[in-house]
Amino acid sequence: MQEVGFLGMGIMGKAMAMNLLRHGFKVHVWNRTLSKCIELKEHGAFVEETPAAVIKKCKVTIGMLSDPAAALSVVFDKGGILEEVCHGKGYIDMSTVDAETSIKIGEAVNDKGGVFLEAPVSGSKKPAEDGQLIILAAGEKALYDGVLPAFDVLGKKSFYLGEVGNGAKMKLVVNMIMGSMMNAFSEGLVLADKSGLSPTTLLEVLDLGAIANPMFRMKGPSMVSSDFNPAFPLKHQQKDMRLALALGDENAVSMPVAAAANESFKKARSIGLGDLDFSAVYEIFKVTEPSP
Ligand SMILES: NC(=O)C1=CN([C@@H]2O[C@H](COP(=O)(O)OP(=O)(O)OC[C@H]3O[C@@H](n4cnc5c(N)ncnc54)[C@H](OP(=O)(O)O)[C@@H]3O)[C@@H](O)[C@H]2O)C=CC1
Ligand SMILES: O=CC(=O)O
Asked: For residue 230, which atom of ligand 1 is closest to its CA?
């Protein structure tokens, strides 16, 4: 399988498609905003006009879209996947969505004779550029086995998690934890600063102890210098918190920490920080109450 379709040239999709091109895959790309395909074309990609046109040209097509509405749109809308998907074609949705969305897409693809895999990823812009993603796949096993050469280029490890929905759920659990950690980290940085300590020294202390982790190490210095250039947009992290909380509702799991973190991300969105990196949630903790 050296030819692959790719829908969605956002931060992740572009990095992943570039990576496939670098490794010798022929890649047919589509993006709602066509101009984002120009750089891909310069690197040898074939640009198509609709998702259906991509599906028509490729046996396997990958989607990397922002949210459930976008993931559904490329399948069900005019010019969408369902117009061309048929026996012998596979669709792989790597967007972060809820299980319900994935199941709906999978059933529609199957009804047309195609096969479906969900495969959301853990890892951000840099791991996508470096082929170091963690792939959380579920659905048609034969499609999973067939696409492993591409997954090996995109990721450092692929998990096969069984029936459609399990990949989405695993991804939401992981991002729920990540979003909650980002809130605690932000609170700690502000607490250090407001109580007269150096946030930079706090980063050094954290990195030497039991709660050291790659996220604090990578995001800490840019947060301290107020650099929120987006790798993982805050609006997507809030979407993931919202979908994870819904999963908690369905399963009667009490999630007070995640619920509080979701409120912080919502607040950050409400003041216009949604397109910045998710670490920009830090900004809302800096706001102090006016003294009486
Ligand atoms: N960034 C990250 O670190 C990570 C992101 N993810 C997940 O991957 C997915 C993509 O993320 P990312 O690349 O960062 O997001 P971006 O916001 O950079 O890109 C979103 C993509 O979705 C497309 N899109 C949005 N709405 C629609 C629509 N209605 N119809 C068709 N296309 C649409 C955009 O097209 P257009 O250019 O026209 O707006 C764009 O190609 C998300 O589900 C995210 O949660 C997962 C792991 C890491
Ligand atoms: O979904 C975001 C990530 O970093 O993983």
From this structure: 1
